[in-house]
């Protein structure tokens, strides 16, 4: 099977950068399009009532910093892809920082595979933090290549 459009969510972690390297190597072999995304929550306090009096200042500061962090991670990820010999498209995606955000973006971009890192959490850590990769696997029909730490 040949992949034409590979999507890689990047969060700035070393494992996400490892996923970028794997995806770039696949893209090089298949001459595929490689898209690197970083998700930024539009409103991280959606279910909170405490911030309404301060929302504009808090949200502006959060959003500016979150977007800068996402752009920095994408720049580093793009350099990894270039080192492999692949030009990637990068995109900050505003919306949900969730499996649904990745899956929606994959559909919007007509990706035919998602490559992502997994931190390999186990036990209590996995119970507390969950598994982003597992959520994507459960809710998409696309093939997902999980790169483990």
UniProtKB/TrEMBL annotation:
Keywords: Cytoplasm
Principal location: cytoplasm
Domain of life: Bacteria
Residues in UspA domain copies: 3-148
One Pfam family it belongs to: Usp
SUPFAM superfamilies: Adenine nucleotide alpha hydrolases-like (SSF52402)
Alphabetical list of CDD domains matching this protein: USP-like (cd00293)
GO cellular component: cytoplasm
Localization in the cell: Cytoplasm
Family: Belongs to the universal stress protein A family.
Protein name per the record: Universal stress protein
């Amino acid at each position: 099977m040949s992949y034409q459009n590979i999507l890689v969510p990047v969060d700035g972690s070393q494992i996400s950068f490892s996923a970028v390297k794997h995806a770039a190597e696949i893209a090089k072999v298949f001459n595929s399009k490689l898209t690197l995304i970083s998700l930024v929550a539009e409103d991280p306090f959606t279910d909170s009532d405490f911030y309404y009096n301060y929302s504009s200042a808090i949200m502006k500061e959060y959003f500016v910093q979150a977007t800068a962090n996402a752009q920095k991670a994408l720049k580093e990820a793009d350099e990894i892809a270039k080192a492999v010999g692949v030009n990637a498209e990068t995109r900050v995606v505003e919306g949900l920082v969730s499996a649904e955000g990745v899956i929606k973006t994959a559909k919007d971009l007509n990706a035919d595979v998602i490559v992502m890192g997994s931190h390999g959490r186990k036990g209590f850590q996995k119970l507390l933090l969950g598994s982003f990769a597992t959520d994507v696997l459960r809710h998409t029909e696309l093939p997902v290549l999980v790169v483990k730490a």
